[in-house]
Write a structure and sequence with these properties.
The structure holds two protein chains of two kinds. By secondary structure, chain A is mainly alpha-helical. Chain A is 63% helix and 0% strand. The longest helix of chain A has 33 residues, at 11-43. Chain A is elongated, with a radius of gyration of 22 Å. In chain B, helix 6 packs antiparallel against helix 7 (125-146), helix 7 packs antiparallel against helix 8 (153-162) and helix 8 packs across helix 10. By secondary structure, chain B is an all-alpha fold. Chain B starts with a helix and ends with a helix. Chain B has 13 helices and no strands. Classes of the chains: A mainly alpha, B mainly alpha. Chain B: This is Protoheme IX farnesyltransferase.
């Protein structure tokens, strides 16, 4: 059976892909923190005032 | 290299995805343009009446900045063919082969949608609507339509660059008012002399790319007339914040002096039409125009902060 001929990334390309992925993760993390902080700012203590 | 060859080559490049580093994607956001947008939007946020919670103010500024960056990326996606021909833009990520056009499109669209949604959800929907309109105006009206079809391209397209302080103002007040329209007008009137001064000493670039900039289509003489004309409108418009009472005395004096200096430099561009002196005059006006806009907004901001500190009112 022949080996699969696909696109093989060079070491440099893998390094860049890793850097891009880390940047995306950081951006998503920052967005989560932003939404959390804005929620606290907007609701203040009212964030706990939630009748069940 | 001709435009046809460039276009053909770009088809081959479509296979070459996944090469860009983080820095290449940051370059797609046009960080230098973004810095001016951030600054003018910050002034809009800071001087708007009523004030805003610092976290929400920061959020609004972040969204405006990302929205501006998204416009930059979408502009580079659409303009990749002419960017390769012009010396000023040849090293941008797409012509340099670091990022493909479809990657830039996806990146720009994602950021555009995200910035508008986040601004709407966290701050208010009027400012989000204005931001969405700004991105649409820059990418569709300016980049796709006007830029390649009329020498008035940057006059009308300049509106896109003039919106940020208005978006910032709307983020705080939830409305559009006369003051924010004046801030808009200052940048709007500033754009034509600023870009035409650049086009006067870079016109061969635009010509090679087939972009109908004013000097290419109407000639240098007509461009010089129009630079002077717009400068004559800009100088008094720059003083309007003082006349309307939301700029103080320091702003009134500064804007008057800077406006006079702007007019003088525009006059020199108009008078010096030949050789090195003509080129130097255009470069001088171009450099000064950046300082002019920066100083006007900086003084407006500084004055407002000083008054807030003295009176204890934010």
């Amino acid at each position: 059976m022949m080996a699969e001929e696909g696109i093989r990334l060079t070491a440099e390309q893998k390094k860049r892909r890793r850097a891009r992925n880390i940047a995306i993760a950081a951006a998503i993390g920052a967005l989560v923190v932003l939404f959390y902080v804005v929620t606290i700012v907007k609701l203040g203590p009212g964030v706990l005032n939630r009748p069940i | 290299m001709s435009l046809a060859e460039v276009r053909e080559e770009m088809v081959d490049e479509a296979w070459a995805g996944g090469q860009g580093g983080v820095g290449d994607y940051l370059a797609l956001l046009k960080p230098r343009v973004m810095s001016l947008v951030i600054f003018t939007a910050l002034v809009g946020i800071a001087i708007a009446p009523g004030g805003i919670h610092p976290v929400l103010g920061f959020t609004a500024l972040l969204c405006i900045a990302i929205g501006a960056g998204a416009s930059g990326a979408l502009n580079m996606w659409y303009d990749a063919d002419i960017d390769r021909v012009m010396s000023r833009t040849r090293n941008r990520p797409i012509p340099a082969g670091k990022v493909t056009r479809s990657e830039a499109l996806a990146f720009g669209m994602t950021l555009a949608v995200l910035s508008v949604l986040v601004l709407g959800l966290l701050v208010n929907w009027l400012s989000a609507g204005l931001l969405a309109f700004t991105i649409f105006f820059y990418v569709v009206i300016y980049t796709m339509w006007l830029k390649r079809s009329t020498p008035q391209n940057i006059v009308i397209g300049g509106a896109a660059g003039a919106f940020p302080p208005m978006v910032g103002w709307a983020a705080v007040t939830g409305s559009v008012s006369l003051e924010s329209i004046v801030l808009f007008l200052i940048i709007f009137m500033w754009t034509p002399p600023h870009f035409w001064a650049l086009a006067l000493f870079k016109s061969s670039d635009y010509e090679a790319a087939g972009v109908p900039m004013m000097p290419v289509v109407a000639g240098d003489a007509s461009t010089r007339n129009q630079i002077l004309l717009y400068s004559l409108i800009l100088a008094p418009v720059g003083v309007l914040p003082y006349a309307l009472g939301f700029g103080g005395l320091v702003y009134g004096v500064t804007s008057g002096v800077l406006g006079a200096a702007f007019l003088l430099l525009a006059y020199r561009v108009w008078r010096n039409r030949e050789g090195d002196e003509a080129r130097r005059s255009a470069i001088r006006l171009f450099s000064f125009s950046i300082l002019y806009l920066f100083l006007l907004f900086a003084v407006l901001l500084g004055e407002h902060l000083a008054v807030s500190l003295l009176t204890g009112v934010a």
